[in-house]
Design brief:
alpha/beta, 280 residues, Lyase 2-enoyl-coa Hydratase, Chain  A, domain 2, 2-enoyl-CoA Hydratase, Chain A, domain 1, 7-stranded mixed β-sheet, 10 helices
C-alpha cells in the first residue's frame, strides 16, 4: 500500500483499490488531492499490473466536491482583465485532464459511492465505467448553487449517461438526485443497503473483470467509449481495426479450455508503458 495524504491505494489479485481517505474534511478536493490523484492514475495507467480499479470513499459522504477555500488562497481566479480570464481556461484544462485520465485509463473503473456525491465529485464519477451506490447516496450539481457553471466534465459526460432533460433539471436547479432515481435513470448500476455490501459488490465485479484477458478488456473499453461518441458506421470500422490489432487465438483457446476444466484462466498482463520523457 502506497502512502498518500488524501488517498489509500492497494493492489491485490490484480485489482487496484483507491480510497478517498479524508472523511473529516468530507473528502473535498484541494490542490494536494488533484496532484495525488493525477499521480496515482498515471502510475496505474503506465504499470499495467492492475486489471480493474475500484474507487471508494470513507466517512459519511463520498465527496463534497471542490474545497472552495482553495480559491481564496492558493489558487486565484482573476476576472479583472482578459489576460486573467484567459488563464482560467488553462487552469480548467489542467483540472479536466486529470479526470480525463480516469476515463482513458487502460482498465475499467468502478466507483462505489456512499452519501453525498457533490459538485466536483459528480465530475469525477461520470468518468467511470460502472457506478454502485448506497441507498442514502445522492448526486448534486452543486456549482449552480454557488453561482457558477459546472466546468470539469459533468455537463459533458452526464448527458451520455442519463436522459438529457434530467441533466438540465439537475444542472439548472442544483437539486439532489437520490440513489433510487439515479438507478432508474441508469447513472448507477445497483443500489445497496450498506457501504460494506456495496464495496463487496464492486470488488466482486472487479474480480470478474480481472479474470478475463486484459487485452480483450482493453479493446472492449476502447470500442464502447468510441461508439459513445461516434456513429454506427464509424464505430464498426473502428471495431474492425481494433479486433484485427488485438485478436489472439491463444486467448480464445485458453478461455474455452479453462471453462471446460473448471479452473481460472491465465492471461498475460498489459505491457507497461514507456515514455521518452523518462529515459535518456
Amino acid at each position: 500500500m502506497d502512502a498518500y495524504t488524501c488517498f489509500r491505494l492497494s493492489l491485490s489479485d490484480h485489482i487496484a483499490h483507491l480510497e478517498l481517505s479524508r472523511p473529516e474534511q468530507l473528502n473535498t478536493m484541494h490542490p494536494v488531492f488533484w496532484r495525488e490523484l493525477d499521480e496515482i492514475v498515471t502510475q496505474l495507467h503506465r504499470e499495467g499490473t492492475a486489471r480493474a480499479l475500484v474507487v471508494s470513499s470513507t466517512g459519511k459522504h463520498f465527496s463534497a466536491g471542490m474545497a472552495l477555500d482553495t480559491f481564496a488562497g492558493a489558487i486565484q481566479l482573476d476576472d479583472q482583465n482578459p489576460e486573467g480570464r484567459a488563464a482560467v481556461f488553462d487552469l480548467l484544462t489542467d483540472m479536466q485532464a486529470t479526470f480525463t485520465r480516469i476515463e482513458n485509463l487502460r482498465i475499467p473503473v468502478i466507483f462505489a459511492i456512499q452519501g453525498g456525491c457533490i459538485g466536483g465529485a459528480v465530475d469525477m464519477v461520470t468518468c467511470g465505467c460502472i457506478r454502485y451506490a448506497t441507498a442514502d447516496a445522492f448526486f448534486c450539481i452543486q456549482e449552480i448553487n454557488i453561482g457558477m457553471v459546472a466546468d470539469v466534465g459533468t455537463l459533458q459526460r452526464l448527458p451520455k449517461l442519463v436522459p438529457f432533460a434530467v441533466v438540465k433539471e439537475l444542472a439548472y436547479t442544483g437539486r439532489r438526485l437520490g440513489a433510487a432515481k439515479a438507478e432508474q435513470y441508469g447513472l448507477v448500476n445497483a443500489v445497496f443497503d450498506t457501504p460494506e455490501a456495496m464495496l463487496e459488490a464492486a470488488l466482486q465485479c472487479a474480480r470478474e473483470i480481472a479474470a478475463k484477458p486484459p487485452i480483450a478488456i482493453w479493446g472492449t473499453k476502447q470500442a464502447v467509449t468510441y461508439a459513445r461518441d461516434h456513429g454506427v458506421e464509424d464505430s464498426l470500422r473502428q471495431m474492425g481495426w481494433l479486433q484485427g490489432a488485438i485478436w489472439s487465438n491463444a486467448h480464445v483457446r485458453e478461455s474455452i479450455l479453462a471453462m471446460k476444466e473448471k479452473r481460472a484462466a491465465s492471461f498475460p498482463p498489459l505491457s507497461p508503458l514507456q515514455s521518452f520523457k523518462d529515459v535518456g
